[in-house]
Amino acid sequence: MAIRNIRTIGDEILRKKSKKVEEINDRILTLLKDMQDTMYKAEGVGLAAPQVGILKRVVVIDVGNGPINLINPEIIKTEGEYLDEEGCLSIPGKHGKVARPERVKAKALNEKGEEIIIDGEGLLARALCHEIDHLDGVLFVDKIVEGENQ
Asked: Which superfamily does 12-143 belong to?
């Protein structure tokens, strides 16, 4: 597959709201594979389609247990909160403390169009929130706790 260019802060596409995927076709499946390859090459744990210039609600995540492909993901439940360090492939060199839920339940479609439920805790919960934020044009720097940025 192909490694795509990761858009960086200042690129207006990162601030736009992504559109729902209406049909899972070869273009979406290729996008998912390319996004995985791009994420792994960049040594990230997640990547959202706007980060590669596509305004579609598509996310890939791998926190060490293999890739998770999510189409039209949405968070349906959160529990707890904790503050931890975050960074982003679209904002190289910038880190900061962001409060996120400890546990997240999200629903999405997989690449076969089947509805799946993901229960995430810790890093997976953080990655789900971070990547789904990207689909709405929200960046982690918008949520850095004051006095905690580096």
From this structure: Peptide deformylase (3.90.45.10)
